[in-house]
Amino acid sequence: MVALTSSMTDEALKAIAASNARAIEALTESIRELRSGVAESQQEYQRDRAQLYSLMADSTQNQSRIYRVLENLDRRQGEIVDILRLVTQRLNDINE
Fold this sequence. Notes:
The protein is an all-alpha fold. The chain contains 1 helix and no strands. It has one helix at about 10-95. The chain is rod-shaped, with a radius of gyration of 40 Å.
């Protein structure tokens, strides 16, 4: 940082002003890039969050389907047991 004194020439003051202007412009650009990065991060977060909820919904639907399949399997196993009992009973009746 340069201290301003009353003995500085116009050229020196112009050089300081130009340097300050470049520094301000660089800082402004850095802030703009940071804001852009933050906006992109927020969009990515929102996109990831939506995908997560979608996966959770799919998982819930798949779990529901699995329970329906298990229920159907249980019912069919019961039917098979009933059929085997009838076959066994008839075989016993024939063998008696």
